[in-house]
Amino acid sequence: MNPPQQAQPPTFSAQEFRAALGMFATGVTIVTARTTAGGLIGLTANSFNSVSLSPPLVLWSLSRAAASMTVFSAGSHYAINVLAADQKALAERFATRGADRWSGVGFDEGAGGAPLLHGAAATFECFNRSRYEEGDHIIFVGEVERCAHRAGALPLLFHGGRYYTELPL
């Protein structure tokens, strides 16, 4: 018997799929970059994952419909800022359309000018290595040029549509 050549159509709704995905607890990041004119860009993302230790690679994904798609697609660098538990308000601000995302936000200049947010649990300064078009998102693979972390920082987690922080078992 030959294996199928493509997946069967889904037997669930988009809402059911989203709810099931929400059961996977993730960390929360803000991905940042600079426009070609030097403007600041940033958005909250929980689609972050490690790919490889050698070379050091990470990935994240962005909706094809995102207003910032052209900046992230064309830019040479971006930073992934892993948020700490006390940065929930920042995560919400950078997830809100039309919000003044950068007002009062402290940051340092990273590779290619990508902002490194003060107080982040970890930062990854990435060269924009490759992109893969899949479904309604683009998967970005970044080659990490520099990284740092704040020892002892509690993580900001997202699960089931709510924010949490760790609870030791």
Automatic annotation (TrEMBL):
Alphabetized Gene3D superfamilies for the sequence: Electron Transport, Fmn-binding Protein, Chain A
InterPro entries for the chain: Flavin_Rdtase-like_dom, NADH-dep_flavin_reductase, Split_barrel_FMN-bd
SUPFAM superfamilies named in the record: FMN-binding split barrel
Transmembrane spans: none
Keywords from the named record: Oxidoreductase
Flavin reductase like domain residues: 21-165
Coiled-coil zones: none
Pfam family, one: Flavin_Reduct
SMART domains according to UniProt: Flavin_Reduct
Superkingdom of origin: Bacteria
Family of this protein: Belongs to the non-flavoprotein flavin reductase family.
Name of the protein in its database record: Flavin reductase family protein
Origin species: Ramlibacter alkalitolerans
